[in-house]
Amino acid sequence: MRTRSRHGGRHELGQNFLVHTLTIDRIVTLVAATDGAILEIGAGGGALTAGLASLGRELTAIDIDERRIAALRRAHPAVRVEHADALRHPLDSPVIAGNIPFHLTTPILRRLLRRPGWRDAVLLTQWEVARKRAGVGGGTMLTAQAAPWFEFTLHGRVPSHAFRPAPSVDGGVLSITRRTSPLVPVSQRRAYERFAGDVFTARGRGMASILTTVCRSPRSVVRRHLAQAGIGDDALPRDLAPHQWADLWALRTG
């Protein structure tokens, strides 16, 4: 058996296998509350695959490490196992689940949020990413850009010793649900994303100052819009809730 994948070794592949039974059970319970076929990305050693297979639903498991495919197929004959890269594979199953390689968390999330075919995702990611995406301690630009169409929920921290080998940082269980009623029309998504990005990157000491620059509007108009959206003049972009972003966008384009 090859000791090294053609894609690289363990470090290049970000392979930290989940072995913590309570975390596996937590993820499986969250997936059980969803409906439809499941796609597991980064199946690795198959610990999570076994739990997902126990749900009795259609399950496809993918992994980039070709050395693990045969073992996964032998261990889980009822599961469709494919040698595939999550950065290229169609993420079009109704439910996406997986232990995401920490070094690929952001590119996988960005790709996932652009794909139209799924409804729910339950992911084990790097703790800081999970915390920030859920808006704990303040939102990020990526979260603000996606919030009108997706809900992010943090389901707890996973200590590094829950993995083998142990990574240098903890993980976090993050669920993402596509909103059935978007806060901003899908047809306006790209324009809204540019707006949210401009707000996060513009100079200013508070939303009143930032929006005056971004919108090129009089301060009096900006302050009125902020008041209507329930946002303080001195608030920062990271402080805004999803509905406040949507309200600002509606006021700006209305």
3D architecture notes:
The chain is α/β, with parallel strands linked by helices and 254 residues long. The chain folds into 2 domains: 10-178, Vaccinia Virus protein VP39 (Rossmann fold); 186-253, Helicase, Ruva Protein, domain 3 (Orthogonal Bundle). The chain is 38% helix and 18% strand. The protein has helices at 10-13, 21-32, 47-53, 69-75, 105-114, 127-133, 141-146, 189-201, 207-215, 219-228, 242-253, and strands spanning 17-18, 38-41, 59-63, 80-83, 95-99, 120-126, 150-158, 163-164, 171-178. The strands form 2 sheets. A 7-stranded mixed sheet has the order 4-3-2-5-6-9-7. A two-stranded antiparallel sheet has the order 1-8. Helix 5 (105-114) links the parallel strand 5 (95-99) and strand 6 (120-126). Helix 2 (21-32) runs parallel beside helix 3 and helix 9 (207-215) crosses helix 10. Residues 1-5 and 7-13 have low confidence and may be disordered.
Give the class from helix and strand content and strand pairing: alpha/beta
Order of helix and strand elements from N to C terminus:
HEHEHEHEEHEHHEEEHHHH
* Overall strand count: 9
CATH class of the largest domain: Alpha Beta
The CATH architecture of the largest domain would be 3-Layer(aba) Sandwich
Gyration radius over CA: 20 Å
Task: Give, in spatial order, the strands making up the sheet with the most strands.
Answer: 4-3-2-5-6-9-7
CATH superfamily of the largest domain: Vaccinia Virus protein VP39
Our count of helices gives 11
- Report the average pLDDT across residues: 92
Protein name: 23S ribosomal RNA methyltransferase Erm
InterPro entries: KsgA/Erm, rRNA_Ade_methylase_Trfase_N, SAM-dependent_MTases_sf
Binding site for S-adenosyl-L-methionine: 16, 18, 42, 63, 85, 99
GO molecular function, one term: rRNA (adenine-N6,N6-)-dimethyltransferase activity
